[in-house]
What we know:
The protein is an alpha+beta fold. It is built from 16 helices and 46 strands.
Amino acid sequence: MLTAGAAALLAALGLVSPPVAGAAPASGPDTFTETAQQQIAALQAVKAGRTAAESKVDSKLLVAEKGVAKQLNALQSGATVSAAGTVLVDVRASKVSPDLIAGLTKAGAGIRAVSDRYASVRAEVPLDKVGEIAARADVKRVEQADQAMTARELATPATTPDKTKAETKQQKADRIAGELQQAIAGKTRRSAAAAATLTSEGDRAHNADIARQQFGVTGVGVKACALSDGVDSLAASQAKGELPPDVDVIAGQEGDGDEGTAMLEIIHDLAPRAALGFASAFNSDASFADNIRKLRFESHCDVIVDDVIYFKESPFQDWIIAQAVNDVTADGALYFSSAGNEGNVASGTAGHWEGDFVDSGKAIGKFAGTAHNFAGAAGNQIYEPISNASSAGVPVTLHWSDPLGASSNDYDLYLLNSAGAVVSFSQNVQDGTQDPYEILQTPAFGGTGLRLAIVKFSGQNRYLSLSALRGRFSDSADGLKAYNTPGVTVGHSAARDAFSVAAAPAAKAFGRPLEPGDPANPTGPFPGSFSGATKAERFTSDGPRRVFYEANGTPITPGNVSSTGGEVRNKPEITAADGVQTSVTGFNPFFGTSAAAPHAAAIAALVLSGNPGLPPSEVREALISTAVDIEKPGPDNFTGAGVILADKVLAYTGASPQPLAVAKQPTVTPADGGSALDPGDTAKVTLPVTNDGDGTAVSTSVVLTSPTPGVTVAPRAKSYGTISPGQTGVNDFTITVPASQQLGVPVVLNARVTFAGAHSPTTQTFSLPVGTPSPVAQDFAYTGAPVAIPDNSPVGASVTIPVTGVGRASKVSFSVDGTTCSTDPASTTVGLNHSYVGDLVGTLTAPSGAKATVFQRNGGSGKNLCQVVFADTAATAFSTVTSANAPFTGSYRPVQALGGLTAAAADGTWTFSVVDAAASDTGSIRAVALHINGFVQPPAAGAPSNVRGVTNNGPVHPL
């Protein structure tokens, strides 16, 4: 509904009833119709009449809130408002505080992602509360949520009206559960067919298979990690043997989708012994930046790859995502990113123009503004025409050469139809503290004769970048000329030390013309390898990238932010394979620079595997110097130096199979024949060392020491000689534990393994429990009221469990209890009711602060946990469950061992937390309990031992 203030403005302008569609003649190349003039004037009236708080609100949200769009012919507000009247927003704040989160929650917001580092909160908020939120002093801006897309190229465009309807959440869960059950059954049968795995054709096309054989390197000693949408089918891929069982997924960052699973399969195909990791890039732009840093600084990834672009990423300055890339590359990581599928000028597939603003002399609206002249010296054309065939649901971004967070030049963006009416817009305020950025989206099903106009509302002339992402600028039927320039590759893939990766097909051609009448798409060399005859995909994005500011906003060329200023970065640098097979449903074949980037990352992992410690600059030199030139002679702006071949890269760097000798869990045999290591004992410690590397470990020795006071180790060092790859050597040591050692305080052993190789030495720390574990578990249950788990919120729900009288723990298990089990999601008699257990991540935190992930997005659409015990000794991992196992009962191994929580005293407050990481389902924590075994205490003279169990709501006892 039109608000009173907006109605008054429109009435004053005489714009409450604008001309009906078709009443005005179509616009010429250098004129706006009367309808467009009135529409823009009305929108500018809203802009000019903003309050201070409203100036912090995204223009589309403000127009939607005021109801102006409904009064203007053909105009869409561009705000995505749910049926419940909510909008997804990014709240940019001065600081994320508990008061801010509480204020958002009080306003009815559902919290979706929180970044303390970047002071950003993604939230689902009622549209009518946006102004209230913006009025807060700690809120800098309320933006319509920054959206993202991967660089996967779909066989059927996502915006095609007759595309098969997307899977529902339930349908996807059922499909993935079926695939997992089939894979597990196949493993059980151990048939040859079940054991067969798929290998990317890129392995052959890049000569990676030859390189592994020739140089003997497989990725050992390297951790390669991906960021994308999600890893929904991770368990199924692992069960099929397509991925190893130990993929390190950051808890709560599993995401939604399967592009990440497909990317990991590609890396594993080329570098089969590299360790793997993953985090989602899709929770928010700030969360993406946080996860890049987490993968390096917490998960210790050596090679990181992503296939995502956020629309707000600036072409002219490294924004928060590129800054995160800069952080990890400065720390020594190699970073690869998809160049994008936004087309290139050479192939005639581009939808990008950049250049200096040219004043057309055409005043716009009743307030201010002149339109940009795309024709420049060649004439006067204030429109950029969009191809009819590529006009559906296209995000269109406008950036200009002001520093981020400090734009004082105000440009606006409008989309008009062939009749000359404005159908979409973006006109945020830029008055010195905002970003130089506008975005709109074309109608969901496109249109005929759509065209874009850029209006300088106020300020100085600036260098502009206009991109129709996955669209195309082409001449219109009514005489408008399309203007395209190279340089659509933007954002973090254009960071100085990142590798921006273009795509070339490994095997079959991409299966559809990008537009009707386009030339045939190229085919790849499989079963041969890439060569100078290789052709790039016609959709791959081009560079170069002109950048005007350092990440901190310092001008690169002070005083010159025009087409002659700044720094030109040659992007993309290299080309790699796409159009390859994976086992992941929907990604066979897998096209797009999304598939190319992990191939390049995997080859880099092979380089590091054969050259531990090789500086990133030398890896860059090797990749670029050995790339096979394709397309036109010499480096070009859409394939870079050319397509990379693994054997050539490794021949350039040299590579040798590296040993990796690692100490494994020791066994302890007390000299007194007892079953446990007690204070005062002497014991034999049998320490195995396994060579997990590609090369033979020679001159292997172990130095075994203990930082535990009073503990002696003899001998201090022993030789293990030569250990072949995959083999294990064993030696015995003797330890003596002082009689004063406190019961339950472990003896800590540090094993340093040295050998001839670049990975030497390796160190491992082991904790040996001291004392006889008590056979009796003490039970401690949560006794409070049920706690609701907020839907799709990182805030989550927590309950606390106080523990007393245990001292040191020898064993911890955890149960989700209940009295009567069922799959009724509203049940009050189960331990944890939830309508979609596969949305949940459960974490147990000890009083010491140590954490263990109990379950992590397992169980699909299964409902409810009831009478289930999580114990390290359970035979079945909870990661293997499907919805068919619901309600989830019985005994399962947790995702992370609970034994890691026993290093400190058990007494204190334990916390069990549950985060719902996906939308649309709800539930509550009702009845949970800890079961803790202490150590057998020598009874006091004349006093019987006494162990008292504390129970509530019938906790389940571990088996």
